[in-house]
Amino acid sequence: MSKVMITGAAGFIGSQLAYRLYKQGGELILIDNFSYGKEDNLIFEDHSFTDEVLRMDIRDREGIAELLRGGDVDYIYNIAGIAPLPDCQSNPQEAIDVNVIGTVNLLENARKYGVKKFILASTNAMYENETEFPTKEDHFALPTLIYPNTKYVAERFCESYHRTYGMNITCLRFANVYGPHIDCLRTQPPFVAYMIRELYYDRTPVFHSDGNQRRDYIYVDDLVRLAILVQKTEGYDCVNVSSNQNYSVNEMYAIAQELMGKNIPAEYASDAHYWEKYPALYEGAYGIRTEILTHEINKYSLCDNTLAREKYGWTPEIDMREGLRRVIEHECGLLARLG
Q1: Most buried in the list 82, 129, 131, 192, measured by CB within 10 Å?
Q2: Over 90: is that where the pLDDT of 106 sits?
């Protein structure tokens, strides 16, 4: 039986991974500082992790060392981190401290105490300036924004630990992840969560640009399957976790409306107001440039998943319509309970 540590275990992805490993009989160490995690994510039909998660920060050197000191932890999944782009832009010091320094703290302790494999939750946001599609893992233009840069640097430290110490490490570059438990309550929710929330309350959603921008999405269950498969390999690699398909805002909104029985035309707002809920980004001697916001809104993403298919025998199974149906069922239930 494997012993697995999952950081960010109360988050959307971390909790789903924890549940899948629990069902497989694994022994789990779950940690989260609950800055983004929620107890609701930890409650499943046949099990609750609410009393099993340790309230701990991945930057806690002694705390992490104590958990690993016995030398019996086989795998670490570092899912913890600050992911919302505007949160990272608003507080770059904190984003770097958590996403980079926190990762290095885990790597160093994993090195000392003999963890067999370290798996980092990375992102396809690193491809924000890429112009070749589908984008492969081995070549891309360097990112601009704070969040993808923190993940890019975290990957560099992962590679450093592999080259220097021979540690086995995989960096999973997630496409836009969606599924039940996606966070529809945060200040600026992911697109899928936002449109479902607005439709649930019969409100008109406000999208930016013309709605024809296309992104690559991956359903959380498909992601979790690949995350478990990568345990078996040695060495160092970076792997796209992608459906190898993309959808426009308008296409996804049309599917969601049909599934929810709604007919609410969306409105479209100026790019300049995209992060207006974060006024600090527009203040100071140098405010955020409108062209940066326009690029982020309109960027095209499509990731090649050949490596995941050929190396790990993995194939995504959940199509967009079925995935959205499942998300709608869960999120509408959550919103109904909240009143």
Answers
A1: 192
A2: yes
Measured distance CA(319)–CA(307) in Å, rounded: 20
Share of the chain residues as helix, strand and coil, in percent rounded to the nearest 5: 45, 20, 35
Q: Of 156, 99, 143, 125, nearest to 242 (Cα)?
A: 125
Give the 3-state secondary structure of residue 188.
Answer: coil
Domains and CATH numbers, the chain: 3-179+217-245+301-318 (3.40.50.720)
CB 188 within 8 A of CB 86: yes
Instruction: Give tens-digit pLDDT for 227-245.
Output: 999 999 999 999 999 999 9
* Residue 299 near residue 236, CB atoms below 8 Å: no
Cβ atoms < 10 Å from Cβ of 307? 17
pLDDT at position 339 is 77
| Cβ atoms of residues 10 and 38 within 8 Å | yes
pLDDT tens track for 298-333 = 999 999 999 999 999 999 999 999 999 999 999 999
pLDDT band per the 50, 70, 90 thresholds, residue 186: confident
Give the tokens for residue 235. 């060495």
Tell the burial category of 133 from Cβ atoms under 10 Å away from its Cβ (0-12, 13-18, 19+). middle
- Residue 253 corresponds to which tokens in the numbers above? 């909104």
Could you give the CA distance from residue 52 to residue 76 in angstroms, rounded to a whole number? 17
Task: Please give the Cα distance from 241 to 101 (Å, whole number).
Answer: 24
Alpha carbon distance 39, 222 (integer Å):
23
CA dihedral sign of residues 272, 275, 277, 278? negative
Determine the number of helices (DSSP H) and then strands (DSSP E) in the chain.
Answer: 12, 14
